[in-house]
Amino acid sequence: MHKTILVVDDKTANVKRAQEQLGNICNLLFANSYTGAIIQLSTHDDIDAVFTDVMLPAEAEGVSMNHPEIGKEVPYGLIIALIAINKGIEAVSLVTDLGHHSGPIAWALDQLKREDYQKANCFETGKEKDWKEVYDFWFKEEVIEKEPKERRGGLFVVGGKLNEPANKKWAEAIAEEIGMQLMYVNDDLSDEEIAKQFIISNPECAIILGEIAGEAKQSNFDKTGPYTKLQGVAKPWQVIFVAGFMKPSVNEHRHYLRLPFTSKELLARLEEERKLKAAL
What we know:
Radius of gyration: 20 Å
Distance between the termini: 30 Å
CATH architecture of the largest domain: 3-Layer(aba) Sandwich
Number of helices: 9
CATH topology of the largest domain: Rossmann fold
Number of domains: 2
Strand content: 15-25%
Helix content: 25-40%
Order of helices and strands: EHEHEEEHEHEHEHEHEHEEH
Largest sheet: 5 strands, parallel
CATH class of the largest domain: Alpha Beta
Mean pLDDT: 84
């Protein structure tokens, strides 16, 4: 039985390295933020291990958007590790590239770099994180190569009143033309619940119908929240778009699609994203 491991890291290179090192020997889940990690932990009851970065960008959850620490790195990994332990997860590791002279937290982490700690520990792996070393500490005797699996194709649409016949017909036609199964959730769900449905559905592509431009802030059309949450739990090969009606000159976000778009346009953008992800 292959282990299910949650990897928490906000650096693209570290995530890619985890996929390369562990993708063929275990079932991987990913989060690139504190909130993303909490959503993954609350969605899955079968996680065998959590390997988390120590320092992650501070989020505006529960505090003012103008708080001076927003965006700065804070030791969220310590909280993630404690929550994982409280959930009964038996293998929890803090995986850091911090040297112990980097600061007080980095120095204190030295106390966790012990092989006799069998509930939680810390690995200082240098500039390139060695996720396989961490895996081997916990599961060395259980390495079994997985059979290559085809990615699950799927188009996950958020919002857009697809309960209305005309809208549903448009979405179904797009999904059929690009050869994907259509999955749909209402945008009246909380951002966390939308992210959980995204995790369960496991699509290649998600489209959130709304806006992420500055002009849409503080309105019902602003979908920055669910977009950020989905990005926070997405696997390396998953793509999340936001689709709205603003002109490209107003909204030049890489993951923005202007409505109405055709299946050909969506496929072209998907192919661009696939190439970009492969090159990272």
